[in-house]
């Protein structure tokens, strides 16, 4: 016996209830949105390892072994990094509190150098007075504010031990089940969605591509540049290496400018100090990192997966950092990817119908 179609009133009433239930579900899960997104991204990253282990072990043990690798490779190094970052950020803040006069005195030693005189003349043409005391106070203030910001970020995480343990536990548990239920979950979402199956898979495929590009490609290259940059800062005694390595790793995600935002001022600082050999060596090291990482390694890791205009990449990362904090490095490109993919689907599948329905 064929089931009769529901009346329009019944259908509208059911869809209203369904919409309300989805909104309540979203409100219920919203406090864990970062955990869920991070868990899904790490699941996609480690799923090939899970599939390899799953050939020899049952689902439960393969997922357990993969989660153990996630803990060893991601969370334990992250804990030590945050502890070192908090300590160095505290040191930078303490240094910035009383370094204004010291920096001014050091800069007065180089006040007669040709470079410093040229900078003063250029500043005078622009209507500014470039005095050593003012520069020292400005640099010390920037160091103090940067140290306070990073210390607060790292300390909040370290101080809220229970929240960290809870987030860590939820992330691992979510990854554990997502590894085993990934395909079933996607098929369930596809069944719920009214979009055609090929469009749903196109959207998720784009997410996977940008996730691989951001996490695997840009992420690995950013970590390498951060480690190398930290070693350079330690070698030249330019400041706390872990702190500056973290800053360089974040800047490495930005196209066009990248770690040059720190390396160029560091080179100028060495020139002002009169360390010409150190400045030349720093430029050479910066060029080697740029050529080897940006021009050789990153194209091989990223490939053609991140087909996004360089300006959109830049704005998505800056906007993501501003809106979501550190995780905005991931969220920003994902949001832009979702829009571009939906825009592509609209232009290929729905644009002609919308134009027909709009009266001219």
What does this structure look like?
This protein is mostly helical. It has helices at residues 8-29, 33-54, 59-97, 100-109, 114-125, 132-159, 161-192, 197-235, 241-251, 260-272, 276-302, 310-324, 328-357. The mean pLDDT is 75. The radius of gyration is 26 Å and the shape is globular. The chain has 13 helices and no strands.
Ordered list of secondary-structure elements with their pairings:
Layout: H1 8-29, H2 33-54, H3 59-97, H4 100-109, H5 114-125, H6 132-159, H7 161-192, H8 197-235, H9 241-251, H10 260-272, H11 276-302, H12 310-324, H13 328-357
Instruction: Work out the number of β strands.
Output: 0
Report the portion of residues in β strands: under 5%
**Main structural class:** mainly alpha
Q: Which series of helices and strands comes N to C?
A: HHHHHHHHHHHHH
For the largest beta-sheet, the strand count, sense and barrel status come to: none
Notable traits:
single chain, 360 residues, mainly alpha, 13 helices
Short description:
The chain is mainly alpha-helical and 360 residues long.
């Amino acid at each position: 016996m064929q089931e009769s179609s529901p009346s329009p009133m019944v259908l509208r009433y059911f869809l209203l209830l369904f919409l309300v239930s989805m909104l309540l579900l979203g409100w219920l899960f919203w406090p864990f949105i970062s955990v869920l997104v991070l868990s899904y991204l790490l699941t996609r990253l480690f799923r090939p390892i899970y599939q390899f282990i799953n050939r020899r072990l049952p689902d439960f043990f393969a997922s357990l072994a993969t989660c153990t690798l996630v803990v060893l490779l991601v969370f334990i190094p992250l804990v030590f990094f945050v502890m070192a970052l908090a300590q160095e950020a505290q040191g930078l803040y303490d240094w910035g509190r009383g370094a204004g006069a010291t920096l001014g005195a050091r800069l007065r030693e180089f006040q007669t150098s040709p470079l410093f005189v040229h900078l003063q003349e250029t500043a005078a043409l622009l209507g500014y007075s470039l005095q050593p005391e003012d520069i020292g106070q400005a640099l010390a203030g920037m160091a103090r504010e940067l140290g306070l910001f990073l210390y607060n970020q790292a300390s909040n995480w370290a101080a809220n031990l229970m929240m960290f343990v809870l987030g860590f536990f939820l992330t691992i548990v979510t990854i554990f089940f997502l590894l085993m239920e990934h395909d079933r979950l996607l098929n369930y979402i596809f069944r719920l969605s009214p979009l055609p199956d090929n469009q749903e898979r196109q959207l998720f495929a784009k997410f996977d591509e940008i996730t691989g590009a951001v996490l695997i490609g840009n992420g690995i290259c950013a970590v390498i540049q951060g480690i190398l940059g930290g070693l350079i800062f330690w070698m030249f005694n330019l400041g706390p290496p872990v702190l500056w390595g973290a800053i360089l790793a974040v800047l490495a995600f930005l196209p066009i400018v990248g770690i040059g935002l720190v390396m160029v001022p560091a080179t100028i600082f060495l020139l002002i100090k009169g360390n010409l050999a150190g400045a030349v060596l720093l430029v050479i090291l910066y060029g080697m990192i740029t050529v080897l990482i940006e021009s050789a390694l990153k194209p091989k890791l990223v490939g053609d997966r991140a087909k996004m205009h360089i300006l959109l990449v830049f704005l998505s990362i800056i906007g993501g950092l501003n809106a979501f904090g550190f995780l905005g490095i991931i969220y920003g490109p994902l949001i832009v990817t979702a829009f571009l993919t939906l825009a592509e689907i609209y232009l290929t599948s729905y644009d002609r119908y919308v134009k027909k329905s709009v009266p001219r």
